[in-house]
Automatic annotation (TrEMBL):
Domain RNase H type-1: 3-97
Organism: Triticum turgidum subsp. durum
Cross-referenced CDD domains: RNase_H_like
Pfam families tied to this protein: RVT_3
One Gene Ontology MF term: nucleic acid binding
Record protein name field: RNase H type-1 domain-containing protein
Length: 132
């Protein structure tokens, strides 16, 4: 079951980690707006997981973003888990990222309760691969 999905074009980002961090920040803000109390943030970026789970990257060029993510997670939710998953298990995120690249710079779309077919198809594919 998909409760929300979103995609967007961030415009200019410095690298993949920057893009992943901004996507996580947008997801956190959406979870806050939806009134979630417990969240599991999944990423296929081990580097992002590490940056959010400890202070190793706080003084990097993206440190302010990582600190913002950690602050929002700490003050906005009762329980938070940030985990990495293999890219092969992250097909839905990949489909949303591809969709987002087709939007204009700074444009985003969010779907609540009812997701577009390409998201539902990707979720179904992920679920079927779990069973096999």
């Amino acid at each position: 079951m998909v409760i929300a999905a979103g995609a967007g074009n961030l415009g200019q980002v410095s690298n993949a980690l920057h893009s992943e961090a901004m996507a996580m920040l947008h997801a956190i803000n959406a979870a806050i707006q939806m009134g979630c109390h417990c969240v599991i943030m999944e990423t296929d970026s081990v580097q992002l997981q590490s940056a959010v789970n400890n202070e190793d990257y706080d003084l990097s060029t993206l440190g302010a973003i990582f600190k913002d993510i950690k602050f929002k997670l700490r003050v906005s939710f009762n329980h938070v888990t940030v985990v990495s998953c293999p890219r092969t298990c992250n097909v839905v995120a990949h489909c949303l990222a591809v969709y987002g690249t087709k939007l204009g710079a700074g444009i985003s779309e969010i779907w609540l309760d009812e997701s577009p077919d390409f998201v539902n198809d990707a979720v179904a594919g992920d679920l079927s691969s779990i069973g096999s």
